[in-house]
Specification:
This protein has about 325 residues and is mainly α. It is built from 14 helices and 4 strands. The strands form 2 sheets. Strands 1-2 form a two-stranded antiparallel ribbon. Helix 2 packs antiparallel against helix 4 and helix 13 crosses helix 14.
């Protein structure tokens, strides 16, 4: 396979000092696999590069998979577990059913990692690394990650239904769900910027196109040209609910800050995204990140680091799964 070359990136000196001066982050370590699996980053990078070369959309799918994992039981790879007699899996929860993607990519990377470093690297760390590589490959920032997460022993479908933010919720509810995980209002605005890539199912926004707030009319704030385009992709019939529309129709496959410009121009597809310019607490940040792409890149990396540390299992908690889809036999009681 032809390797996808990595571009050079510039980061302010203070940012480098901030990260490199802290080799320990809680019980996660930046050099955790330096000796036990020295080629880990290369293995993950090659696996992700191959997947994105096959389908650019996979970058957004991996980002969403990681986000949904971390919001339920913490970043413990519980979303990767298949349903068993012991628990109901998160894959069938409403936010994930028939929409969460990227499982096969993580499976393939895990298999390659197991060949090089058997029973050493957790699925949680592999997913965390894969997302960083995916975002970078489609033009986004690169952030340093501390490692040492362990994999959860169960999944929680109920928690997935209740705790993962929904595009149908008011902004206030979404903010509350973020803050319950130790994230801030700024993280809400920054991580929403991940919608600069990827697609949304028509069913998640179709009410804006035909019957906004039960008025029988489209959302009057939606840009007219976008409305016409989305109505073609999502005709007013039930069988169009699974059709896909790009979240950012301007630079669909590139990670950049155009998402924020879209919001300011009423080009946000999801109502939950467009709500960011209707709230006095968030609109100033939308304007800031629209003006400052480098600041957004730095902020996104910082927020992703925070996300990746939610509720992690370390040391003797959890396990290192051999197969990301099932708990190790020795851990089943």
């Amino acid at each position: 396979m032809e390797m996808i070359s990595y571009r050079l990136y510039s980061v302010p000196l203070f940012f480098c000092i901030l990260f490199f001066s802290h080799f320990v982050s809680g019980q996660l370590y930046y050099n955790f696999y330096d000796y036990s699996c020295p080629n880990l980053n290369t293995i993950v990078r090659n696996g992700v590069a191959s997947a994105i070369a096959n389908e650019t959309r996979m970058a957004a799918s991996l980002l969403r998979l990681h986000f949904h994992d971390c919001f339920v039981n913490g970043c413990d790879a519980s979303i990767l577990l298949d349903e068993s007699s012991e628990f109901k899996g998160e894959k069938n929860a409403l936010p994930n059913r028939n929409s969460a993607r990227g499982f096969e990519v993580i499976d393939a990377i895990k298999a390659d990692v197991e060949k090089a470093c058997p029973s050493t690297v957790s699925c949680a760390d592999i997913l965390t690394l894969a997302v960083r590589e995916a975002i970078y490959l489609v033009g986004g920032p690169y952030w340093l990650l501390s490692m040492g997460r362990r994999d959860g022993l169960t999944a929680n479908e109920t928690a997935a239904n209740e705790q993962i933010p929904s595009p149908f919720e008011p902004l206030e509810n979404i903010i509350a769900k973020f803050t319950s995980k130790g994230l801030t209002l700024r993280d809400v605005v920054v991580l929403s910027g991940g919608h600069t890539i990827g697609f949304a199912r028509c069913g998640t926004f179709k009410s804006r196109l035909f019957d906004f707030n039960n008025t029988g009319n489209p959302d009057p704030t939606l840009d007219e040209s976008l409305l016409e385009s989305l109505q073609k992709i999502c005709p007013n019939q039930a069988d169009s609910n699974t059709n896909l529309a790009p979240l950012d129709s301007v630079t669909t496959n590139r990670f950049d800050n155009v998402y924020y410009r879209n919001l300011l121009n009423n080009l946000g597809v999801l109502q939950s995204d467009q709500a960011l310019i209707r709230d006095n607490r968030t609109v100033s940040m939308v304007r800031l990140f629209n003006r400052a792409p480098d600041l957004f890149a730095l902020a996104f990396g910082a927020s992703m680091v925070k996300l990746s540390k939610i509720g992690v299992l370390t040391v003797n908690d959890g396990e290192i799964r051999k197969n990301c889809r099932v708990v190790n036999q020795a851990s089943i009681y």
